[in-house]
């Protein structure tokens, strides 16, 4: 795996713009589109890299990657073996790129650290109350959460996942994992010359990973499964008046402001962290059809519902962010292992969609990965490189992770019936509650999310209310709260395969949906100097690494690549 990218010194950055102008203004200047060997900007730049050997390399310091690394070192310690385990994380510190709900199941944590309470894991809020409701424009219809339904949260905890990940990082360091934050892994290679040589590389990049998507293509890992489907999750942290705060309460809603054919809903988690803090979030399925839909504006509008506004009124928003999450479930899982590597957590998509939970399955996959890697390395002996841990696939399929994902496999696709939201609720109430996933059929998804967008001429524009600055906010003041930053003189990490396509295809046919689905205002169509035509402007420094553009772009022309190391959001316990 090659790590990071070189800083582009100012002189090189300026050479970039002095090339002769092609007919379409040049937007993409990244080396992944303009190879360094043919690019005069890189002439004379020393490309020599440091390289190192490790036993196991983990890419990504989220729950899955850290669990894998910890478990490997636990096994090595028990077996009295030397095992060099390195973990690289693109954020400047562990947890800074983590955005989640999060209400977590402690099952895998109990397995990894039965003594997590003594180790002071930051699980401060046991769940005491579960609420679920359908919203109409003015009303709230409570729905009982029966025992056994996926939304039941008895025994779970509300956490700030970024803080939990930071704590996992401390445990990993204590046991001897080498952690390198601020290192983005930018290229996966199985040839000589790679920067970190590992006998096994564990890809734990989370949802829609940059390297993982390349591996899918290069190794054909998705040839047996359905396309992955996704949602975008937007989240804010609020400090609210203490009378509106009920630590341990979990609230979910579906319905308004989304129409019945758009999958999504909200969560409000009341944290017990000393201050009256709420995690307020909104999730929109990325299989939505109307290119005028704006997930950020839907979220802002949602907070004005009478039953939500009364909780937030008088409060203060202190943080904002967004991240994609997997929704394909078991139907969309790729092969997990290949010579030299394997996939854990949300990288392959081990997310329980109706529960909106993937932390426990990510951690369990990390435990299984570590167990199978450790056993295989012992069998193969120290000189074998590129070890194929195919036992991992079988072990994962024999675990409770598989049973759990299998049981809920039909819930998400059941929302595709003509009844939309109501079809999904009826399906869950009738089939899931009675049969618990034992029905002998498996429903299919309707194709990749980008293919679901309809042309603008066939859709109705949506008029969103102006933000009031108390409950709802504009995009730029929101992005400022994510703390995101990228060095301005690097080539934008939002790359286009074809610089002409945004105007010729996306703007012409879909009214430029990237202006709306990006939750950070990265994409803007602005007039050319002639004022007759438009061009796409990419404000890459705003990007919060949610990956939505890479997923939903109807032309599949946007390729999100890792930016210069350390760039991106600076979340504080999201
Ligand atoms: C809005 C929202 C709400 C959610 N709510 C819940 C919930 O209530 N309960 C629950 O259990 N789950 C919830 N989830 C899902 C949960 O967050 C994920 O399942 C979990 O974080 C997956 O862990 P992971 O380690 O696989 O990936 P991640 O947590 O995404 O971690 C991946 C890490 O890898 C790093 N990385 C990525 N690419 C590279 C690279 N190339 N080089 C170096 N580093 C890299 C990232 O910066 C990140 O730190 C929610 C998710 C969202 C988006
Ligand atoms: S540019 Fe893409 S990855 Fe970055 S915030 Fe916007 S949609 Fe998300």
UniProtKB/TrEMBL annotation:
InterPro entries: 4Fe4S_Fe-S-bd, ETF-QO, ETF-QO/FixC_UQ-bd, ETF-QO/FixX_C, FAD/NAD-bd_sf. GO terms for molecular function: 4 iron, 4 sulfur cluster binding; electron-transferring-flavoprotein dehydrogenase activity; metal ion binding. Residues 534-563 form the 4Fe-4S ferredoxin-type domain. It is found in: Mitochondrion inner membrane. Keywords: Acetylation, Electron transport, FAD, Flavoprotein, Iron, Iron-sulfur, Membrane, Metal-binding, Mitochondrion, Mitochondrion inner membrane, Oxidoreductase, Phosphoprotein, Signal, Transit peptide, Transport, Ubiquinone. Its cofactor is [4Fe-4S] cluster; FAD. Pfam families: ETFQO_UQ-bd (PF21162), Fer4_ETF_QO (PF05187), NAD_binding_8 (PF13450). One of its GO terms (cellular component) is mitochondrial inner membrane. It is an enzyme of class 1 (oxidoreductase). It catalyses: a ubiquinone + reduced [electron-transfer flavoprotein] = a ubiquinol + oxidized [electron-transfer flavoprotein] + H(+). The keyword Membrane applies. Accepts electrons from ETF and reduces ubiquinone. PANTHER family: ELECTRON TRANSFER FLAVOPROTEIN-UBIQUINONE OXIDOREDUCTASE, ELECTRON TRANSFER FLAVOPROTEIN-UBIQUINONE OXIDOREDUCTASE, MITOCHONDRIAL. This is Electron transfer flavoprotein-ubiquinone oxidoreductase.
């Amino acid at each position: 795996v090659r790590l990071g990218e070189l800083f582009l010194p100012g002189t090189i950055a300026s050479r970039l713009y002095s090339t002769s102008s092609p007919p379409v203004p040049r937007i993409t200047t990244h080396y992944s589109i303009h190879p360094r060997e043919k690019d005069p900007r890189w002439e004379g730049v020393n490309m020599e890299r440091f390289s190192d050997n490790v036993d196991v390399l983990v890419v990504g310091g989220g729950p899955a990657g850290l669990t894998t690394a910890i478990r490997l070192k636990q096994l090595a310690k028990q077996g009295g073996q030397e095992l060099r385990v390195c973990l690289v994380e693109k954020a400047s510190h562990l947890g800074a790129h983590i955005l989640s709900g999060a209400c977590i199941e402690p099952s895998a944590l109990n397995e990894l650290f039965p003594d997590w309470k003594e180790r002071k894991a930051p699980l401060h809020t046991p769940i005491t109350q579960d609420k679920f409701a359908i919203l109409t424009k003015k009303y709230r219809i409570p729905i009982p959460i029966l025992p056994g339904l996926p939304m039941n949260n008895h025994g779970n905890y509300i956490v700030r996942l970024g803080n939990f990940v930071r704590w996992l990082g401390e445990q990993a360091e204590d046991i001897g994992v080498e952690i390198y934050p601020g290192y983005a892994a930018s290229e996966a290679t199985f040839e000589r010359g790679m920067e970190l040589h590992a006998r096994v590389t564990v890809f734990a990049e989370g949802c829609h990973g940059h390297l993982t998507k390349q591996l899918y293509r290069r190794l054909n890992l998705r040839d047996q499964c359905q396309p992955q489907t996704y949602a975008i999750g937007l989240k804010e942290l609020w400090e609210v008046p203490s009378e509106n705060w009920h630590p341990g309460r979990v609230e979910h809603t579906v319905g308004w402001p989304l129409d019945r054919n758009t999958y999504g809903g909200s969560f409000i988690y009341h944290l017990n962290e000393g201050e009256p803090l709420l995690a307020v979030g909104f999730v929109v399925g990325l299989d939505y059809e109307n290119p005028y839909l704006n997930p950020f504006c839907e979220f802002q509008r949602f907070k004005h519902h009478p039953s939500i506004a009364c909780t937030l009124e008088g409060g203060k928003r202190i943080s904002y962010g967004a991240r994609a999450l997997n929704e394909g479930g078991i139907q969309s899982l790729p092969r997990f292992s290949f010579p030299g590597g394997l996939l854990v957590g949300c990288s392959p998509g081990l997310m329980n969609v109706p529960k909106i939970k993937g932390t426990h399955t990510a951690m369990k996959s990390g435990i299984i990965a570590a167990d199978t890697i450790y056993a295989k390395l012992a069998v193969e002996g120290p000189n074998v490189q590129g070890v194929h841990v195919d036992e991992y696939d079988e072990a994962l399929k024999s675990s409770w992770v598989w049973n759990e994902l299998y049981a809920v496999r039909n819930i998400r696709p059941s929302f595709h019936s003509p009844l939309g939201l109501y079809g999904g609720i009826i399906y869950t109430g009738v089939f899931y509650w009675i049969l618990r996933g034992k029905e002998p059929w498996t429903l299919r998804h309707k194709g990749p999310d980008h293919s679901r967008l309809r042309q603008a001429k066939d859709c109705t524009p949506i008029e969103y209310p102006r933000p009031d600055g108390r409950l709802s906010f504009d995009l730029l003041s929101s992005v400022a709260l994510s703390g995101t930053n990228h060095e301005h003189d690097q080539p934008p990490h939002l790359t286009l395969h074809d610089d002409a396509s945004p105007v010729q295809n996306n703007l012409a046919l879909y009214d430029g949906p990237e202006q709306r689905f990006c939750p950070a205002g990265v994409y803007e169509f602005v007039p050319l100097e002639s004022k007759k035509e438009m061009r796409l402007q990419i404000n890459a420094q705003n990007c919060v690494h949610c990956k939505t553009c890479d997923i939903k772009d109807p032309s599949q022309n946007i390729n999100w690549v890792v930016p210069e190391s350390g760039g991106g959001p600076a979340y504080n316990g999201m």
